[in-house]
């Protein structure tokens, strides 16, 4: 299927590895010129080289912290009017809400709610003028099924979800869609790190903890970044113009509800 994206431009945040990288690769494969952002220069440049060699697409890199005003200014200077915006940032740490003060809450809101909103605010009007725009926020399956120890993430990402639900209905008439991708367990560096920490805490071998968690999922496996990236590319496609204000949960069936 031709997704109708050749010649479009995309700004993809936190794209040097993991789910953000998966989105950048899939978009580039469809002929999109991608600007990828991350804080680490070495991983960012390695990813850019990999994407260029695999797809032949134009890839622009920018090492910055997208959660800061300075980082966003640099990102928007590098890609001032993207057709596709993919927001993404690492989640806040787990813990007990009794241990969190205002500083912890503000940091979570800044990274996982306010930064995407600022990026949307800076890019949506040119999308409206061109009568084409795709905004895709990488949030979390915790928006659908909150995780008790991830209260900071639950709160910040749900706030972003509510904001986007209203805005999506305002801009749909202009050919601009806003959707959220909600990842469950995907085979990423983050999942592997968390598994290793869980194994150390429990005293069990890492492989045992990994397999145990994998078998608890109805699919009996973890998702791949390629699957995630392709879902992102489809939501960005011309065929997905009637999909907006939605939360696409990708968790292998882990969430047990009907709706």
UniProtKB/TrEMBL annotation:
Native species: Stella humosa
Family: Belongs to the short-chain dehydrogenases/reductases (SDR) family.
Name of the protein this chain belongs to: 3-oxoacyl-[acyl-carrier protein] reductase
Record-linked InterPro entries: NAD(P)-bd_dom_sf (IPR036291), SDR (IPR050259), SDR_fam (IPR002347)
Bilayer-crossing regions: none
